[in-house]
Amino acid sequence: MNRQPIGIFDSGIGGLTVARAIVDHLPSESLLYFGDTARVPYGTQSAATIRQYSEAISRYLIGQGCKAIVVACNTASAAALTHLRELWPTIPFIGMEPAVKPGAKATRTGVVGVLATEGTFSSSRYAQLMRRYANTVTVIEDPCLGLVQRIEKGDLQGPATKALLESILSPMLAKGADTIVLGCTHYPFVAPLIRQIVGPGVRIINPAPAVARQLKHVLAQQDLRHVSTLPPSYQFQISGPNGQFEDLASRMMGFPVRVSFHIEL
Length: 265
Ligand code: DGL
Hints:
Bound molecules: D-glutamic acid
CATH topology of the largest domain: Rossmann fold
Distance between the termini: 25 Å
Structural class: alpha/beta
Strand content: 15-25%
Shape: globular
């Protein structure tokens, strides 16, 4: 069982920002990554639809023998995590949520900008997070419409992506935000551009390393760790056309990525 891969899924390339952190923290674990590129973006679709997609992908990954599943997508975690844990109580599911708590802790001005998707912002999980951790700070939210599509296309630096990010970040900066939370796993792909716009004094929070640490903790707790000197296997599968996937994935992972399989779920 312990040799089995960790399943990771997202609507597309976003979850690779989490996969990268997992490789850094758990270098001997094998991974099976699934990007639902045929149905990206998730952020503007209904919670019921995302729950259905997440269930089908999880069923597939479990069928492939995955010992744990990382829902490397804030939108899918918000819509489906509770449901998935109920369906498969013996499989550890690790989910994502916007880092409102670390953001509220880090801010000195008391103003935090949260970049996520419409689906995440409208979820009850997010409302709960806000009630628990954002009482003493001002949170400025933006659903970043169109940003995920630009990132999927590989436009990480171009003028249209820059203009879109400026229109999102400028109002936050004008209101005194000193902390920006990346509440969608796609957005670390444009972190260098965000840094360029906000300048060196603003903190940018990417929760991927914290999720990798949490995964490590859960695997150890359930005695599911695999530690070996043999090289792990990394598999990448997508549901839609290849597009920029291999190129962006190779850049994020730091080694050449080849898609091994296309499957529609
Ligand atoms: N990467 C996803 C997230 O973390 C979803 C982006 C999308 O498909 O809209 O929310």
